[in-house]
Specification:
The chain is α+β, with helices and mostly antiparallel strands. The chain contains 2 helices and 3 strands. Helices cover 43% and strands 33% of the residues.
């Protein structure tokens, strides 16, 4: 996959994650979504979904455990629709 195609795919993934995490959010011209996945000190996975407006964080949500698994399933399903 070329860099521009990869960047488009990641942008779509971030947008879908933000819309699932914050269904009332309407994207503005200065808004940009982000998500981060990692493991905590107990080796448990987690995911953080954030929306920034410029440099200000306007939405934030952290998923762990069963909620994380359900969110990933919804996210992947939304990409195939």
């Amino acid at each position: 996959m070329d860099a521009s195609g990869e960047e488009r795919w990641l942008r779509v993934l971030r947008e879908h994650a933000a819309r699932l995490a914050f269904p009332d959010w309407t994207s503005g011209p200065d808004d940009w979504p982000s998500f981060y996945t990692s493991f905590d000190d107990a080796a448990e996975p987690y995911m953080e979904v954030t929306v920034y407006r410029g440099v200000d964080r306007i939405h934030y949500r952290r998923y762990t455990g069963d909620e994380l698994a359900a969110f990933w399933a919804r996210l992947l399903d939304s990409l195939t629709e």
